[in-house]
What does this fold into?
Amino acid sequence: MEQTLSIIKPDAVKKGVVGKIIDRFESNGLRIAAMKKIWLSKADAKQFYIIHKDRPFYNELVSFMVSGPVVVMVLEGDNAVLKNRDLMGATNPKEAKAGTIRADFADNIDANAVHGSDSLENAKIEIAFFFGKREIH
Ligand code: ADP
Ligand code: MG
It folds into this structure.
């Protein structure tokens, strides 16, 4: 059993597709172990994406992530990290396979609907960034 972190980004929250995205997880064997709606501060968004700090899109990414509230979840299940990445689809929705969350709900590479941890190691760090042990069930 693995846990991974998922964020429904501001574009998808604004569009009102939170329920549709959560259904993708629950219909594919990922259980919601924790969930909350928050509005990230700029400092938190910068810290969360600190691994991208030298990339040309870092400032845009941070601005986008604070442009509205997000829904943050811990997803749990067999192979949760990879399964979530498969359900999400490619970073650029134009390259995402049909039927993936990004193919169906994302507009472009900046506003691409969801974040998902890319490894078990990062999942642990990202989960601890948002949730205390007593918030995960
Ligand atoms: P993923 O979210 O698929 O793990 P990355 O970790 O590479 O992708 O990038 C983090 C986020 O930064 C992406 O989800 C996307 O919103 C943004 N991003 C990545 N690459 C680009 C790019 N070339 N131009 C603009 N934004 C980008
Ligand atoms: Mg990533």
